[in-house]
Amino acid sequence: MVLRPQAGVWLAALLCALLSGIAAAQLDGDAAPDEPAIAVPRVPSGPSIDNSTDNGHDNADADDEMIDADSDDPGERYQTDGSDQDDNAEDDRMLADAAKRPYVVDVTSGASLKLDPPELPDLSRYTAANAIAKIRKSPHGHAEVRSMLDELSFRSFMGRDERMRDWAARQKSLPKVIFVHGYMTPRDIAQQVPREYFQQTARGVFVARLPIDVRPDATLHIDDSVSDFRLSINRGAFLVNEGKLFITGARLRGWDEAKNAPSTFIDKHRFRPFMVSWGGSQTYIIKSVVADLGYAASKSYGVSISQFSPSLAPKMNRPNPTGWLIDSEFYDNWYGFYCYEAEDVVIRGNDYHDNIKYGIDPHDRSRRLIIAENKAHDTREKHGIIVSREVDDSWIIDNQAYDNNLSGIVVDRNSINNVVAHNRVYRNHADGITIYESPKTLIWQNLVSANRRHGIRVRNSTNLRLYGNVAIGNGLSGIYGHIKNLAGTGRNLRLDPFHERISMTVVGGQLISNGSSPVGIDQPLSLELYDVDMRAPQRQLGIKFTGILGKHQEQVLDVLMRQKKAVILRPADATVASAK
To answer: Terminus-to-terminus CA distance in the chain, angstroms?
Structure first.
């Protein structure tokens, strides 16, 4: 085919335009994210007699989003979470009942239980410098003020708890939003938006008096020239990210203009400013302070990275959100961090303290997360770190979780294939580490000490591997495993199914001077024990196992301490497969 000259020129121009568009998209970050996916843990199946059980999700219905938010929120109608569900009297009763069942003790070589250390993710690329290098300062942007009513992305807020009426009352008009396009800074917004909506009140101090929406084509950069980015509680301000948000060396917080003071927490029902990053967004909070945000309303918890709701997500058609939170401080937020259907989020080197309900709370179907090198402490109501409802393939490593009102670290509600390693978990008011209804979890070389209840608690979970952990001076057992029938507890069994089964392998480590026993377990499918150092019991009469272990204590101790071999405790009618 011979092209006419005009056609050839036209095609050449079209090709140049397409190539230019691709280059521009790459420059502005509109192409696929440049970060590889976080490596998935390789948690082995086990113990040896039940490799076929509970290694995948039940077919729970994900059409509804039910979260751990509040008694008023749909999620909390079904159950609470973590270690506030069990009491000591019930623990004792279950252990007594379990001791009546027929079990046998098998002896095997400890070599069969050998496990190589997990290959932990390389954290070296998750740095402040690498995050800042992602910023693209073109094209130069603009800001506009218009109604929120026609924007799909705000429908997750509309019609719930009369929030639209609240915002209209605070704004004294139909709710409006500052929409940000292109690359902008707070100074840019202040130059383009009327002072009644956004104002620089002093050098480095900015006050937003309307919600701000960072559009999918936009980047908002709150940099180290901003000493205080304030979201006005009086005017109903909050921050929505649909594009790229960078907070680097700055402070973001809720602000009460009437009191000229931070919007500190008073009541969970009282509106406070918040930030939420929706599907398709990228969020980078680096060397910054985020405080005084969030309350008990959907997606308004404080700092959230969330896919759109199940009804809205198909219409928006955006990938799951992601982000890095590095070397920052989070305090007095309803949740220090929350995510929903997020992927490849990195939470590294932060200090989460004095948050209200949770410190760090990844939720529904979030995957491939790294929670590393953080401090999570002094959470006022519940846990320091909790991953809940099908949060899979993630790493909770080298954190400190202490002085929280309930547990230090919780893995909850069918979260599978996670690694909890090298954490220091101490002085929590309930358990140190709690695993609820979450099979195939590796608990590797953690230190759990001086927690008021159990050092490590496992409930209704199979294929648990506990290797090299040290549990010292906890109020009850060093390691405690049990089953529980959760029917009739208010739990939504469609969303959160459970199985009354437990199995675990405990190898190495030390269980020292714990209150009731080194190890207690009831009705396991299998318990494998090897090379566990148990000494200095608090009881004057020496080591005393609880549950089914208590019935076989003499034989178990003989195998472990005199023969130096591994114990497999199993129901009398179960068969044993060789461990690999």
So the answer is: 66
Residue with tokens 């709710």: 175
Is 353 among the catalytic positions?
no
- The label of the residue with tokens 């034989």 reads 555
Work out the pLDDT band at 25, boundaries 50, 70, 90: very low
Q: Are residues 65 and 214 in the same domain?
A: no
Question: What range does the domain containing 407 cover?
Answer: 47-115+377-580
Inter-CA distances, 476 with 257, 438, 452, 529, Å = 48, 22, 7, 19
Whole-model pTM above 0.85? yes
Q: Is 131 helix (H, G, I), strand (E, B) or coil?
A: helix
State the DSSP string of 189-216: HHHHS-TTTEEEEETTEEEE-S-EEE-T
In a domain, 123, yes or no: no
Q: Are β-strands 289-291 and 329-331 bridged in parallel, bridged antiparallel, or unpaired?
A: parallel
Q: How far apart are CA 305 and CA 39, in angstroms?
A: 20
Q: Please state the domain count of the chain.
A: 2
The active-site residue, picked from 181, 221, 353, 363, is: 363
Q: How confident is the model at residue 326 (pLDDT cuts 50, 70, 90)?
A: very high
Band (151; pLDDT cuts 50, 70, 90): confident
What is the CATH classification number for the domain harbouring 217?
2.160.20.10
Residue carrying structure tokens 């929706």: 278
Q: Residue 497: what pLDDT?
A: 83
